[in-house]
Specification:
Blueprint lengths: L5 E6 L6 E6 L4 E7 L4 E6 L4 E6 L8 E2 L4 E2 L7 E7 L2 E6 L10 E9 L2 E10 L3 E7 L2 E6 L4 E5 L2 H4 L4 E3 L3 E5 L8 E4 L2 E6 L10 E5 L2 H7 L5 E2 L6 E4 L8 E7 L4 E6 L6 E5 L12 E4 L12
InterPro entries: Quino_amine_DH_bsu (IPR011044)
């Protein structure tokens, strides 16, 4: 039986150089790089734990890496990671109660070279992507076009509990969203479209997001007109864009696309044009599922 390992690719967007880091996990979802501690954090689907790999910047070539810090085995089906100061939050879409749609958020604290589970929150909808915006946690409502927010998340959600979002809205024009990125007042949301189709992916760009989100009532719909731009079509090479990040300085959107040639990492620098635009950068990466952009 072949050994299946999880690969993390590091791409230098300035030079085009890349490094392949191989981990012992057979699958992982969610990735985060902390420039202060020089570590990559992954949620392992095979060991059901959070792993941190340190001294990343000192790695000179493609090598196998070993976790320096690991949490206890708690998660069941991790999908994304968000970090807020000393907290690592993991979205998990394992069904807690098959009679209703639900998911869980696992909150870990990082202190003294340890990742310790602080609390678990059961949510009344299926989860996928999550993202911190200041102290608020934004979460994708899986299998829908909806976006939810939990206000003052790490401060107010400190114990094991079943909770509802502070607010949920629908995003017009999206069929089914998975990934989200929030930077400097701009929100990016991916649209995988019909999960059975490999030709209908895209992403939406929402500038001045805070004011636009506030203007929509709880349970309401954010219209496309005047609020959003959409990038989609055959030239985009997006078929199943499951993860996204955004560089506000260069106005570049990065996409992890699980389909199209087996998987790709794409970058779009001309998103103001919207519509059916081609990516400015295209890396082939089998089953690309998560990404994180870091600029020092």
């Amino acid at each position: 039986m072949p050994l299946i390992t999880m690969t993390v690719m590091l791409y230098d967007m300035n030079t085009g150089e890349s490094k392949k880091l191989t981990t012992s996990a057979s699958a992982a979802e969610g990735v985060y790089y902390d420039g202060d501690t020089d570590e990559i954090i992954l949620a392992s689907c095979s060991s059901n734990q959070i792993n941190a790999y340190t001294s990343i910047s000192s790695i000179l070539g493609s090598v196998a890496i070993t976790a320096s810090i690991s949490s206890s085995s708690d998660v069941q089906s991790p999908r994304d990671i968000a970090v807020n100061n000393s907290f690592v939050i993991v979205s998990d879409n394992a069904d807690v109660d098959t009679a209703t749609a639900d998911g869980r958020l696992f909150v870990y604290s990082r202190a003294n070279s340890a990742l310790t589970l602080r609390n678990v929150l059961t949510i009344d909808f299926a989860l996928w992507g999550i993202e911190m915006g200041d102290n608020d946690l934004y979460a994708v409502v899986d299998k829908t076009n909806q976006l939810a927010v939990f206000a003052n998340f790490t401060v107010t959600k400190t114990t094991n509990a079943t909770v509802s979002a502070s607010k949920r809205i629908a995003i017009e024009g999206i069929v089914r969203t998975h990934g989200l990125a929030y930077r400097n007042g701009t929100m990016i949301l991916t649209d995988i479209g019909d999960a059975a189709s490999d030709s209908d992916g895209g992403f939406h760009v929402i500038t001045n997001f805070d004011s636009k989100f506030s203007a929509v009532s709880n349970g309401g719909v954010m219209a496309v007109a005047g609020n959003q731009t959409r990038v989609a079509g055959s030239a985009t090479m997006m078929e199943n864009p499951v993860s996204v990040d955004y560089d506000a300085v260069s106005n570049t959107v990065f996409i992890a696309n699980a389909a199209n040639g087996g998987g790709r990492v794409l970058a779009f620098t001309n998103t103001n044009a919207e519509g059916n635009i081609a990516p400015s950068t295209n890396y082939t990466l089998s089953k690309a599922s998560s990404l994180y952009f870091y600029s020092n």
